[in-house]
């Protein structure tokens, strides 16, 4: 059994990007720029945005962070996005979700120029992804595909079972792996909470992608021997032995499922670190296209 080291792969990707950016600097060119917009005080969002900021600085991207109060109006946010849509120093715009309830998330996502939509959430980019066109892909599912590639895990003709149907992970990862392309071309099934017999389906998986948001939901009797496990879940569960009072677990019962698997991603240190690596890569891709 091989533990997929997402932390290492993400570090490799950042190092590759750092090199490309230093080459731009050596040539006297401008560097890719990313702005993150955080509205309000959501603690998990603050952590994510802080990690993003650190990673940007490490690879040499131009990075900007706008912290706005929870009282910011939708009109104000729309105006700010318009300003960045027209800002030549900015190639990627990330509006951290969730937004406060009085702001319509769909309206905000649709206001971001699709060419600067480094989250890959704009309906134009989602549509392009579905029909297999080259576009900015959402970071977490793109990170999953990249991990499979870098570990030379064959996907062509394999049965990938995606557990979960969110717009951020389940639906896009299923679509990406379905494409008739290298690193994809899989037979894909999506299962979710309404499935009558989930286990019959998950047991057929050559590659199982868990993106449900339920701690340790996938048990060893739900998978076959030799399965590849990609665990996208990040769940806080109480743990009195930790100083913080909690620990992070995935959507997979790692201790038991790992015994049956050929490859498995840990939590933390699996898919998680890939999200930011893909965000930085998307910013670089957007920069190359906008130049
Ligand atoms: N909130 C949780 N995950 C994400 C993400 O990938 N992008 C944005 N913009 N917000 C998030």
Give the helices and strands, then pairings:
Layout: E1 2-3, H1 6-26, E2 33-39, H2 43-59, E3 62-68, H3 74-85, E4 92-95, H4 105-111, H5 123-130, H6 139-150, E5 159-163, H7 170-178, E6 187-191, H8 198-202, E7 207-210, E8 227-231, E9 235-238, E10 246-249, H9 254-257, E11 261-264, H10 272-290
Parallel strand pairs: 1-11, 2-3, 2-4, 5-6, 5-7, 7-8, 8-11
Antiparallel strand pairs: 9-10
Bound molecules: guanine.
**CATH superfamily assignment of the largest domain?**
NAD(P)-binding Rossmann-like Domain
- The main sheet orders its strands as 1-11-8-7-5-6
Please tell me what the overall shape is: globular
In DSSP terms (H or I, runs of 4 or more residues), the helix count works out at 10
How does the helix and strand content classify structurally? alpha/beta
Specify the biggest β-sheet. Answer: 6 strands, parallel
- What's the overall average pLDDT, rounded? 97
Task: Assign the CATH class of the largest domain.
Answer: Alpha Beta
Radius of gyration: 19 Å
The name CATH uses for the topology of the largest domain is Rossmann fold
Question: How many separate domains?
Answer: 2
* Proportion of residues in helical segments: 25-40%
Give the oligomeric state of the chains in this entry, treating copies of one chain as homo and distinct chains as hetero.
single chain
The ordered string of helix (H) and strand (E) elements is: EHEHEHEHHHEHEHEEEEHEH
Unreliable residue runs: none
């Amino acid at each position: 059994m091989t533990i997929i080291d997402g932390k290492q792969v993400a570090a490799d990707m950042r190092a590759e990007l750092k090199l490309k950016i230093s080459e731009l600097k050596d040539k006297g060119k401008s560097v890719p720029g990313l702005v993150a917009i955080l509205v309000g005080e959501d603690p998990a969002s603050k952590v994510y945005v802080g990690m993003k900021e650190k990673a940007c600085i490490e690879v040499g991207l131009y990075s900007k962070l706008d912290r706005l109060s929870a009282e910011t109006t939708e009109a104000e946010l729309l105006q700010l996005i318009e300003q960045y849509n027209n800002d030549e120093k900015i190639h990627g715009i990330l509006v951290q979700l969730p937004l406060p309830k009085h702001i319509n998330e769909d309206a905000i996502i649709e206001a971001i120029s699709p060419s600067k939509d480094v989250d890959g959430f704009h309906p134009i980019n989602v549509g392009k992804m579905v029909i297999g066109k080259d576009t900015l892909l959402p970071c977490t599912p793109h990170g999953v595909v990249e991990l499979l590639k870098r570990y030379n895990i064959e996907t062509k003709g394999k049965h990938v079972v995606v557990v979960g149907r969110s717009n951020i992970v389940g639906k896009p990862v299923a679509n990406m792996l379905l494409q008739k392309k290298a690193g994809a071309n899989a037979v894909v099934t999506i299962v979710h909470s309404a499935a009558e017999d989930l286990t019959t389906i998950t047991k057929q998986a050559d590659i199982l992608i868990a993106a449900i948001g339920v701690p340790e939901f996938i048990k060893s009797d739900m998978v076959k021997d030799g399965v590849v496990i990609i665990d996208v879940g990040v769940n806080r569960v109480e743990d009195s032995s930790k100083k913080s009072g909690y620990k992070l677990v995935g959507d997979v019962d790692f201790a038991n499922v790992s015994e049956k698997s050929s490859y498995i991603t840990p939590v933390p240190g699996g898919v998680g670190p890939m999200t930011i690596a893909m965000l930085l890569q998307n910013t670089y891709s957007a920069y190359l296209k906008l130049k």
